[in-house]
Amino acid sequence: GLFVTDYFTRTPRKLSPFRSFASIELFHFHIPEDTVIAVWNLITFKEQGGTFGDQCPDRSITVYFRSGAPSVINPLHTHFPRDTAVPGSFALTLTWTLPNRTTGVFNVTSPLPGDWFLAAHLPKDEGKISVKGLYEECQYLFQPQLIVQRLVNIAVLYPGHVTEQSMAPHNRSCLYKVFVPSYTSRVLVEVLRCRGAEGCPLWLRVRAKAPPLHNSTTLDCREHTPCQLAQDLPFWQHWYYVLVEKHPGVPGTISFQVTVQLTDCSRPSLARPPFLPSSASMNMPHSFGSAGGLALGDSPPPTSPNDTKHAIPIPVTSHAGERCWPVRPTLRNELDTFSVHFYIFFGPNVSVPPDRPAVFVINLLPVLDSGGVLNLELRLNVSSLCGENVTVFGCLNHEVPLTSGDNTSVTCETESLAGFLLSVNATASLSRLRIPYPQTGSWYLSLRSLCATEHGFEPCTNVTAEVYLRAYLSPCINDCGIYGQCKLLRTNNYLYAACECKAGWNGWGCTDNAEAFSYGFQLLSTLLLCLSNVMFVPPVAIAVRSHYLLEAAVYIFTMFFSTFYHACDQPGIVVFCIMEYDVLQFCDFLGSLMSVWVTVIAMARLQPIVKQASVLYLLGAMLLSMALQMDRHGLWNLLGPSLFALGIMAVAWTARTIRRRHCYPPTWKRWAFYLCPGALIAAAAVLLYAFVETEENYFYIHSIWHLLIAGSVGFLLPPRAKPSRRLGPLPRRKGCGYQLCVNEQEELGLVDPAVASINSICTS
């Protein structure tokens, strides 16, 4: 056949250490139909400071693959919530082959068409809290690329018609496909009139949705006569691919005929007619995709010597389980994103008769519904059992209802189908099922009632059970509980939801309490972070006593908002918020930076030099507010104002030192007992904040940070300024007199008043 190659790529993204599904990077691809091979090229490289990160450590990268919906991953091996079904996925770990780059390849032969999802993450780290901009962080970027090779013009088989084929010596196989509409209970493929070799050396393989593989359903035509391969309970509204493969080493040309028969389960004794009326073509695509393809309601194309189609009568035998029952639809009611309720007509109470199952269909829209959780709830009305020991079984299957001919069967699985089983009885009248990230399409729920006897389950007589059925789509499982937050995430145009747990809780629904914080620990951590701000009371008292009223007001502002911000910022249930979280955070950060600013400006003692020193206070408040609004967690928000204020203080102290020709402050006691201890305490606080703080020790390390910062302010705040020693003008007399004009004295009594010089004598 003719192959066409398609290429898809995605933008590189930065990977994060795994904490929950909200921390992974999700990539969405779409594989077209008739794809015979898909190759993912997984490119990973390091960056540090805008260049290649050759010095960055090698960290393994885990990539997950799943068709139809995102992968439900659990790398930390946590517990899932009760009644949760975990769909499987394939995982691949990438190792580094070069210092700054590595590449992995993942091949899938005959992949399922439709949506494919890749999820990637780094291993869990120690949870270090780093200051943004303090150092160049190592970044691990991941970029997947997809190359698909698909066949075009695959021959289409029409039910009830024979296709003649000749396989040349250089050809090894022939591929066909047939569309299976709804309400089909059986697909029968048969190879007829095999000529050209002894014993018909052909293999017959059949697979749904994609071309067959080596492990697909296979039949050796040499060992089976007639060569018939049947598929019971096929997937509805999908293509089935038929591969006729020649045995190796067979010379010459082999000719044969292929035919497909579909059994309509609504009429088990009849096969589907070769050509349905136009109104029946609603269940089948109008175009088959092959050159000269036959659309429903059209006439067959002209026959050819090597490929002919004509109708032949094929006997159809009734098989057990071929009969199907009416499928009751559900009404879709969309309330919000991933918040959809499926209502049953004349429900939600459902009557399950003893002689037949009740079948319902739930349709999930492609892409839109696969990022949430499908919830199903069955509640049995015990009063409707009339004292009988009745059990109602429910089978939830994807794309085809499972209605077994054996009424005593309680399984929801076959050789080619796997479903989910629910059961309710008088003892356990409630059953739930949760499927995170369900595959889209049609989900069928079949309800049957059986009576328990000494010999197992048997069909009931004259007992119609009543069941309350509830089906809905939610973003997260139980809204992640009280110790989690349900987050709506987006990757390109795809939306999905995931839980982000707190207070040590883990798991898909934040229900795993193996590492959870106890209530006492949560209370202790909250009290530590809040009460440590009481250390600002001594600096406030010192500031008031020294007549630094503006500084005292800033310290009170910082103490108040830091206390209530940390009371609102707790991860557990010991939380108290007096305002919105964002307002409290902004005021806490602004108060902290303003405390540093006003303390350093007060140390500079600018009042005698700059007559309007209050301008600097106002300018600092405005600039800090602007900086916090731009980037609240940036390093320069703390370092920039601090360095600027320290520069102003250094200029002021240097000017005094040069003018007086003496070090300022001049007393060694001021340096030894106030400035040096205060600077050391502040430096220790900064080091703890920048290099020691992690998520595990945050509660007590940050409390120590509060204590050290408040203590350093008490040491660094200058003492009260002594009153000016300026000599006021003498009282003027009527007549002659003198007025002495004396220079103002230096503050803090650093200049002996006895040596104050008189600059001028003014005569009045």
TrEMBL record:
Entry GO terms, CC: plasma membrane
PROSITE patterns named in the record: EGF_1, EGF_2
One Pfam family linked to the record: DUF3522
Transmembrane segments annotated in the record for this chain: 516-536, 548-567, 573-597, 609-628, 634-655, 671-692, 698-717
Topology within the bilayer: Multi-pass membrane protein
PANTHER family to which the protein is assigned, alphabetical: FIVE-SPAN TRANSMEMBRANE PROTEIN M83 (PTHR14319), TRANSMEMBRANE PROTEIN 8B (PTHR14319:SF6)
Protein known as: TMM8B protein
Protein's organism: Bombycilla garrulus (Bohemian waxwing)
